[in-house]
Amino acid sequence: MLKRTPLYDVYKDYEGVKIVEFGGWELPVQFSEGIITEHLTVRKNAGLFDVSHMGEIIVEGAGSEAYIDWLVTNNVKSMENYQCLYSPMCYPDGGVVDDLLIYRYSPEKYLLVVNASNSDKDYEWITKGNPKADSPEKPKRIENLSSDFGQLAFQGPMANQYMREIVGDIVDQIGFFRFTEGIRIAGQECIISRTGYTGEDGFEIYCSSDAVADIWNELLERTGNKGVLPCGLGARDTLRFESKLPLYGHELTKEISPLEANLSVFVHLDGDDFCGKNALSMQKEEGVPRSLRGCEMIDRGVPREHYRVFSIEGEEIGAVTSGSKSIMLDKFCGLVLIKRGIGLKVGDEIEIEINNKRRRARLVKTPFYKNTQKK
Q1: Are 87 and 93 in contact (CB under 8 A)?
Q2: Which residues, at least 6 apart from 129, have a Cβ–Cβ distance to it below 8 Å?
């Protein structure tokens, strides 16, 4: 049976909403205005997303900092209180369990925000599956609280101004990848972080599952007359794609390491030991075999996931991980995982096999689009 977020009953009867299955959930792919309008609204104004399907795992007790620092590839020990950190979490062979956000309250209390389709798998790995799961240093409390949380994303260059009008100047004090708690919206207590998955400024709002409908309604009632729209999964994906933000299962998988996905900045190989460090260190020393690159189509065609990629000379060199039309550029683009060390650079042509025909594309710089006007 498909899962539903606490907001399902709020928007299921909205005129024009289209609800689809995604990772075991019934979620809106778009609302009445459609994906393109929602995308442009987030780029130019602000949009509101229901992301209550995301998973939340609390880790609390003595040893929490060291345990999480070993589980993930980034440097948890460098975090300050009320800071957020992005990190892959790897298997011992360097493949990716998931990528997640880490919220630090203190050295003994963390909130892990994980991908919806991976929440049960991640919880199993964190509590039982990883090589240190039986360690006496494991924190006393590791609990999957996903069903207790509601989560909204309020994204766009105007999000800060609108949020200030609703909750006050405190939002100006929330720095990038920082969070605060105890803020009230519609009388409901929230955690608000300056994070997101669109490439724009904005916030992610966490609250109890019972409170999320009140907050959703309040935000739309206060900002709808200013052009803010409810937005669905379709715009969320086109926005993250334009900004080259990885999607687990596409740019990161058990078979694709964070080094291959060009996420080495989030892999702390010079620091303390972590799960997968030996494998990733060896991969770097021997030469990372593949690299995630961006391309835009020259010939007609849409690059889709798993489509094969060839050099102009006819050698198969990789595959597409994600592909879509860049709404801001009005071009069809793709992310391709291709062999390294074959001399390809930005501007060079490749070919993508689309419907059994090879179509020309050109390697380009990424992200495909960056809003230079955002704060």
Answers
A1: no
A2: none
What count of residues does the chain have?
A: 375
**What confidence score (pLDDT) does residue 375 get?**
47
CA dist 14 and 203 (Å) reads: 24
Domain ranges of the chain: 3-52+148-242, 289-364
Output the CA torsion sign for 302, 307, 313, 317: positive
- 268-311 pLDDT per residue, tens: 999 999 999 999 999 999 999 999 999 999 999 999 999 999 99
- What is the CATH class of 3-52+148-242? alpha beta
Q: Write the DSSP string, 215-266.
A: HHHHHHHHHGGGT-EEE-HHHHHHHHHHTT---BTTTBBTTB-TTTTT-GGG
User: Into which CATH architecture does domain 289-364 fall?
Assistant: Beta Barrel (2.40)
- pLDDT at position 371 is 86
Amino acid of residue 132: K
Residues of the chain with confidence (pLDDT) below 50: 374-375
306, exposed or middle or buried, with CB in 10 Å at 0-12, 13-18, 19+?
exposed
Asked if 352 and 335 count as a contact pair (C-beta separation under 8 A), the reply is no
- Residues 254/260/262/267 CA torsion (nearest 10 deg): 60
